[in-house]
Amino acid sequence: MMNNKRDDIKLWRDNGLSGGMEILRASCFEHSYPAHFHNEFVIAAFARGAQRHRVCRHAGVAAAGTVMIIHPGEVHTGEALQRDKGWDYSAFYPSESLVEEAAASVLGGRGSVNFGRDVMRHDPKVARGLLQASLLMTQSQDPLEKECALFQMLGMVIGHYGQRTHRGAATRALRADMRRATDFLQTAYHQPVTVGEVASIVGLSEFHFMRTFQASTGLSVHRYLTQIRLARAKTLLAQGVSAAQTALDVGFFDQSHFTRHFRTHFGITPGAFGAACR
Prior knowledge:
By secondary structure, this protein is an alpha+beta fold. It folds into two domains: 8-165, Jelly Rolls (Sandwich); 174-276, Homeodomain-like (Arc Repressor Mutant, subunit A, Orthogonal Bundle). Helix content is 44%, strand content 23%. The chain has ten helices and eleven strands. Strands 1, 2, 3, 4, 5, 6, 7, 8 and 10 form a nine-stranded antiparallel β-sheet that branches. Strands 9-11 form a two-stranded antiparallel sheet.
């Protein structure tokens, strides 16, 4: 897939923030994000234009001044509502442990942090705060300044929208058999995997397993495994491993196959991501 010249996507991992947090600043016109998930939270703010998306099969449009929060594991997509206008946005990807750490100070109490069913909030004030924090992350050379901005950003978002719930992420929890399947994929991602092999682990026929897995996760087994491989790849690239070696280490057939998937999902090449992390 060719990257349109109007698209300007910057994605990097700042190893000085909470052990390595990813940050995105993007202006998108032609690029569209396929169905995917993150192991981390997605906290995004929209500055211009409008993004059409689907989160857990619910469709919506995020316009300027919108704050979007997606829980870990929730499958989502994204594309321009109008390609001639596109959309600008920034996003942070804090880990669950980091969000819990911040919530312990902001909310107190017990139970997991939950942001409710509303993926989007039209809140220009909070959106501006997130966008300003994102800009600071690109400009500041001071690690302390960036850490302070990160925790202020998390405190603001959790204070406005977060709540404690003893059910935690129950709505996202997979059935026990599907959990065994995803746990296997998390450990076997670097090697060739067949549907029959995974289905046998949970004791289901291949056809029944594939249908159940898709219904539980929102993705096919192949697409879910690709997500795991891409997440592992970003870690290696951020550590300075070459794209060619990374492709082999995480289970892609070759570098071109890896590059195609990486650009489709993130809008940039593996080399550009690795360079931005250094």
